[in-house]
Amino acid sequence: MDNTPSPMADTVASRLLEVRSRVREAEARAGREPNSVKLLAVSKKQPTAAIREAYTEGQRDFGESYAQELAQKADELSDLADIRWHMIGHLQRNKAKVVVPRVVRVCSVDSERLLGELHKQLELSEVTTGKQKILGVLLEVNVGGEASKSGAPPAALPRLLEVARGLDRLRVQGLMAIPPRTDSETEAMAFFERLRALRDELGGAEVLPELSMGMSADLEPAIRAGSTEVRVGTAIFGERR
């Protein structure tokens, strides 16, 4: 799957336009409704100037993988009032207090202990600020069974969902997965369809409306398989710096 940006796409703005076009075309080919797939711009290891450029072009949702980097960028870009930060990388429980005040969603929840810590930090924040915050979460699934990757095994999902439902400051919005790397669209589709099937087993779109799957190289098959959100970094920002 060769989805390398064209030589003309040499700015964040032009790359972003190209990615949006890819998403819209993939929606049409899959028979999906226009604008049914959201774009999460993965900005990890990218400078704040690049994020500002994407923001100027209308991008509002940005994903970061490291707690301290997210905190620094969120603070530096606090003048962008409607920017929305998402934690997409593995989150250690001792870093939850750094992330919770700054994000609208944690996309990489894979344990009961992390669910509990996120809820605890939300309660503490309410005490100190006097404001209640409801945090969106996605349950991350290790669909490929890779030992090197985080994510809950599929068998753990019912229990995680049950625990999350008992925590009133958390809202489980769906599932997320980073499948094994492959150059085969057929193999990629199999993993994406597995995540969709897991969602169906847990009550379908009414219970878990979001399926966050698909990145720069494989967003087209992900959209065909039912993705509601693609996470794109390289195709927008270029190689990490």
Description:
The chain is of the alpha/beta class and about 240 residues long. The chain has a single domain (about 10-235), classed as Alpha-Beta Barrel (TIM Barrel), CATH 3.20.20. It has helices at about 10-30, 50-55, 65-75, 95-100, 110-130, 155-165, 185-200, 220-225, 235; strands spanning about 40, 60-65, 85, 105-110, 135-140, 170-175, 210, 230. Helix 1 (about 10-30) runs parallel beside helix 8 (about 220-225) and helix 7 runs parallel beside helix 8 (about 220-225). The two termini are about 25 Å apart. The model is unreliable at about 5-10 (pLDDT under 50).
Helices and strands, with pairings:
Blueprint: H1 12-29, E1 38-42, H2 48-56, E2 61-64, H3 67-76, E3 84-87, H4 96-99, E4 105-109, H5 112-129, E5 135-141, H6 157-165, E6 170-177, H7 185-201, E7 210-212, H8 219-225, E8 229-232, H9 234-237
User: What is the assembly state of the chains in this entry?
Assistant: single chain
Tally of DSSP β-strands: 8
CATH topology: TIM Barrel
| Total domain modules | 1
* SSE succession: HEHEHEHEHEHEHEHEH
Q: Low-confidence parts, pLDDT < 50 over ≥5 residues? A: 5-9
Beta-strand content bin: 15-25%
- CATH class label: Alpha Beta
Under the CATH scheme, which architecture would be assigned?
Alpha-Beta Barrel
Kindly report the spatial arrangement of strands forming the biggest sheet.
7-6-5-4-3-2-1-8
> How many DSSP helices?
9
